[in-house]
């Protein structure tokens, strides 16, 4: 008997969580959408959406809350096949150094970087119960130093110091985890859903051609149960 794989998608403000969840459902996944604060409230009001996936309220700054998520996954499914770290917040658009609020910067890093580390630490044993586990860390071109130093890049003049540096740190963390996980069977990738060759505006949508890249990352043969 074919059974569905299990995925967790995190969501904290960019609105892409539901988009990722819908794609996963279409590709034969059971999906837990772990959301915080206003994202959870917004998703809770969408009754049609709630028929498709399991919505769980999670505080990504709390080790206890993430442990509760792990317990839910373990009791309901016994394993986790895919973790998509999509939760992020953005603030400080256009701010110069004199305008930065360090408390806001810390709050952004707490979600954009530290929460990712915390979630992977907690859910790694559950991922190891899968035959083919994967982690996808959602990143941004604003954290790509090579692109941001190219004057022809569409976002090169964007001044989002906290957000851009948090994504640069996430990219390095993902790279280091690739090396750490190489001997194991956990695969980890970065994915930028907003990447465009000729972008002229800032839009939190999965652009043409990028959706196929995401599908390639999540497509796996169905599990077979005796």
Descriptive report:
There is one protein chain. With 226 residues, the protein is α/β, with parallel strands linked by helices. It has a single domain, classed as Rossmann fold, CATH 3.40.50. Helices cover 42% and strands 16% of the residues. It has a six-stranded parallel sheet, sandwiched between helices. Strands 1-8 form a two-stranded antiparallel sheet. It is globular, with a radius of gyration of 17 Å. The N and C termini lie close together (6 Å).
Summarize the structure.
With 226 residues, the chain is an alpha/beta fold. It has helices spanning 17-26, 37-44, 47-50, 63-76, 102-127, 145-148, 161-181, 210-218, and strands at 2-3, 5-11, 29-35, 54-57, 82-85, 134-138, 187-191, 223-224.
- Any idea how many domains? 1
Largest sheet: 6 strands, parallel
* Largest sheet: spatial strand order: 4-3-2-5-6-7
Query: N-to-C terminal Cα separation, in Å?
Result: 6 Å
The helix/strand series, from N terminus to C terminus, equals EEHEHHEHEHEHHEHE
- CATH topology, by name, is Rossmann fold
- Output the radius of gyration: 17 Å
Count every helix, treating DSSP H or I runs of 4 or more residues as helices.
8
Broad structural category: alpha/beta
Mean pLDDT score, rounded?
A: 88
The top-level CATH class is: Alpha Beta
Q: Would you identify the CATH architecture?
A: 3-Layer(aba) Sandwich
- What's the shape? globular
* Secondary structure: number of strands: 8
CATH superfamily: NAD(P)-binding Rossmann-like Domain
Low-confidence region ranges:
198-202
Share of helical residues: 40-55%
Beta-strand residue percentage: 15-25%
């Amino acid at each position: 008997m074919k059974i569905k794989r299990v995925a967790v998608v995190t969501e904290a403000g960019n609105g892409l969580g539901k988009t990722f969840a819908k794609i996963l459902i279409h590709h034969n996944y059971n999906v837990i959408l772990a959301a915080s604060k206003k994202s959870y409230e917004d998703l809770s009001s969408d009754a049609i959406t709630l028929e498709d996936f399991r919505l769980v309220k999670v505080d990504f700054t709390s080790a206890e809350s993430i442990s509760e998520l792990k317990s839910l996954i373990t009791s309901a499914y016994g394993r986790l096949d895919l973790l998509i770290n999509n939760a992020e917040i953005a603030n400080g658009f256009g701010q110069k150094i004199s305008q930065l609020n360090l408390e806001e910067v810390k709050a952004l890093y707490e979600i954009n970087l530290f929460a990712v580390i915390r979630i992977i630490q907690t859910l790694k044993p559950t991922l190891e119960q899968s035959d083919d586990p994967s982690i996808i860390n959602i990143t941004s071109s604003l954290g790509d130093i090579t692109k941001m130093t190219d004057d022809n890049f569409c976002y090169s003049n964007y001044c989002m110091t906290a957000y851009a540096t948090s994504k640069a740190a996430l990219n390095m963390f993902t790279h280091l985890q690739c090396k750490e996980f190489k001997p194991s069977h956990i695969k980890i990738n970065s994915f930028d859903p907003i990447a465009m060759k000729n972008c002229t505006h800032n839009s939190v949508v999965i652009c043409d051609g990028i959706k196929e890249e995401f599908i390639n990352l999540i497509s796996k043969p169905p599990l077979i149960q005796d």
